[in-house]
């Protein structure tokens, strides 16, 4: 007998509300209750059960939440998402301690806004039954367990589909659900290494360099959020959900772009170029008197304009640099000439010289300059939300990068505390105070 049903048989009073229903009730959509703050955006009304943790999955579900989806985040009662504890030096001073004496983190706050949190032990039969009951009324379930783990918990796709044929199960793993590496653990830097990104990132004569953020995790979340929306559109035509399966490894391969294509079609092994480009010269960061200035000339016309701005107009007619092919062949000589000129002025002075030229250019900004940038301010890339976990009652968050003219997304509330909405969600499922107390006593919630 299925362990879920076996638990129901042993504890009929406690679990009667979780007995699989028959008829149209089993495929009703959007049955969970919306957040207290009414979501707005193109996905308002979509219900998501988020079983993921760390970065790729939570980043995906936060995008969907920003777009209006009602996201219920399921966390382990013993500590919750690991990222709640990933604090940088000096961070403790901005957070309050909760009842357990622990504090939240900026990392967790980065990727979990606009969500509700329930604390639930997925290893317990009662916890699994709660998940199945929640799955009846949601549109999407997102998870990033090692492939096969969800099935061992009695919560695999076939089980979810049995209680809700319209559900979309979106799975993230290190290497994908099939193949010889399927059961290997996967992390951002491992995906970047195995998928070749670290091979092509860094200075030409230096060691491989990891991007400054978890790029492969976030790219995977970006891919998956689009796939989820596509699956929901498909469901409108077919009436059926489906399983989506992606991985950090496959994401990394897919973004190798022209570098990957050069290997596939020319057998050309890639190399590291620092900030330079393998096929366009000049196109990189040049040292100035006080920092770095990035400029690119993607055609001969732009190169001529660049030479004039630098005060070396004669270079555009030099045989060594007259075409892009020639410049690629003589990149070392050209870089030395350009950087020699660049070092005679400060970055700010070069910005003034390039202003209004129509050329692509820009400084390598510190974060202080990024968040004080007039364009970042004009485009609303910093917002402030209330936070009970913060000492000053609020936390600044990164803005939404895509603007909608009609169904506008919104940042409605900060990340939840661990299990903040457990009782609210369980009561909406029909659990009594006695049953909730029993689950809490048994450490299910």
Automatic annotation (TrEMBL):
DNA repair keyword on record: no
Entry's family note: Belongs to the CoA-transferase III family.
Protein name: CoA-transferase family III domain-containing protein
Keywords: Transferase
Gene3D superfamilies attached to this UniProt entry: Crotonobetainyl-coa:carnitine coa-transferase, domain 1, formyl-coa transferase, domain 3
Alphabetized Pfam families for the sequence: CoA_transf_3
SUPFAM superfamilies, A to Z: CoA-transferase family III (CaiB/BaiF) (SSF89796)
UniProt keyword Glycoprotein, yes or no: no
